[in-house]
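Give me structure tokens for this 219-residue protein.
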Amino acid sequence: MHLLICAATEMEIAALQTAVAKRTLPPAHSIRFLVTGVGIGPSMYQLTKHLCLQKPDLVVQAGIAGTLDPKLLPGDTVVVDADTFGDAGVVENKQFRNLFDLGLQDANLFPYKDGFLLNPFTHWLSLPGLQVVRGITVNEVSTNTDRIQQYRLQWGAQVESMEGASLHYACLQEGIPFLQLRSISNAIGERDKKKWKMKEAVQNLHTELNLLIDKILEL
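Here you go.
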């Protein structure tokens, strides 16, 4: 098993790297780490470059996220099975229209299905034992109330990140199994950083990642 764990920032996986360095891995197992940078562009480039040079058996993207679902609380850790790029499009008559609305992208042309980038690797999705949610990926931390509502109603999105759909897109194109794990740090639209739970989110993320690694090594 050759496992790649990636994150947008060092902060999100630093403690995990330290913990993995102290592990004695079984023969023929390896764990590599990749810090891609923040946002759709850097994550897509770094992931694609790595996947073209290496062929991991599984890619795990780990990171924090904002929640669009009031039932998901700061500190909760989830796994994302469907994601899409939410801010590619145009605002016309005060209404945002995405690439599918505009007819510039076929919502069912591979790797898309109904406009989403779905994770087809159901075995891996079930392995963490976490709540499965739908994500949306944008190049901003959303604050516009109309856009946030659209993400909820049109897409049914429950979490928002800046890199998730890049993982789905790159891995689907290369046919490589993947998992996207996210810990909730804040409610989308909440700009008071005192109400964010960044530290708790990262700690819970590391706990779930260590448990996931244990399960993978037992396979």
